[in-house]
C-alpha cells in the first residue's frame, strides 16, 4: 500500500506563487508517472501536469509557461511550482502516481489552492 500526502496549498493573490509537494510512502515501490490534477467547484477533475521517472514533463495548455512539475525519485516526492497564479487556477489539487510494475494508481487527499483577484 502506498500513501500520498500533499502540502503547500493556500490562499494567494493573483500573480502570486505557490509550491505544492507530494510525498509518497510505503514499502518497496517506485513511481513511474507522477501527475497533478485539479478540480474546481462544479467542474470535473482535470489533468494539470505529469512527469515520468526520466523527467519528461507534460502540461495542460492552461498552465504552460506558468507551472513547473518536478520530482525527486530517490525520495519519492514530487513538486508543482505554480507562478503567475490566476483566479481560474482556484481548485483542489490532487497528486496521482502510477507504480512501476503493478501499474497501480494512487491519489492523494488533495490540497486547496485559492487565488484571489
What's the total number of strands?
11
Q: Stretches where pLDDT falls below 50 for ≥5 residues?
A: none
Question: What is the average per-residue confidence, as pLDDT, rounded to a whole number?
Answer: 96
Give the SSE string: EEEEEEEEEEE
Q: What is the end-to-end distance?
A: 40 Å
Strand content: over 45%
Largest sheet: 7 strands, mixed
Please explain how this structure is put together:
The protein is 0% helix and 58% strand. The chain has 117 residues and is mostly beta strands. The strands form two sheets. Strands 2, 4, 5, 6, 9, 10 and 11 form a seven-stranded mixed sheet that branches. It has a four-stranded antiparallel sheet with strand order 1-3-8-7, with no helix packed on it. A hairpin with a 4-residue loop joins strand 5 and strand 6. The protein starts with a strand and ends with a strand.
SSE layout and pairing:
Blueprint: E1 2-7, E2 10-13, E3 18-26, E4 31-39, E5 46-52, E6 57-59, E7 67-72, E8 77-82, E9 91-99, E10 105-107, E11 111-116
Parallel strand pairs: 2-11
Antiparallel strand pairs: 1-3, 3-8, 4-5, 4-9, 5-6, 7-8, 9-10, 9-11
